[in-house]
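Thread: quick sanity check before group meeting

JM: Hey all, I'm pulling together slides for Thursday and realized we never actually wrote out the predicted structure for the chain we discussed last week. Dropping the sequence here so it's in one place. If anyone has concerns about the input, flag it before I start.
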Amino acid sequence: MGARRKARELALQMLFQYDMAGNEPDMIIATFEDLQKSKANTREFAVRIFRGTVSYLAEIDDIIQQQAENWRLSRMAVVDRNIIRMSVYEFLHESDTPKLVIIDEAIEIAKRFGTQKSSQFINGILDGILKRYNLAT
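JM (edit): ok, ran it. Output follows.
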């Protein structure tokens, strides 16, 4: 597994904890043992994705809600919701990663952490966001 995939998985786990427990981001980062054991570049990218997603959460959730017309965020599976959130953060703020790579990574992470239907659901939402906000270019 590549360093960026590992970083995204770590970011997802931190977002999950933030979403479910509401712990402060600094505490999550400081106490997440797998993160602390990671290589520096993996840790940096994971923290950047996590902090960035949390920082822009209201904007990101609004974008997701506009696309997922029939799905309230609160009704989405926690894993799916957070994979989508961090992917939208990357769409908007990590311009060095191609958008289709972000979607592919989200799908692969969903296959590992989500349900059987997660990858299709996430793909549909993210693809729709790219088209709706003209981000594919």
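AS: nice. The chain has eight helices and no strands. The longest helix spans residues 3-21.
JM: adding both to the slides.
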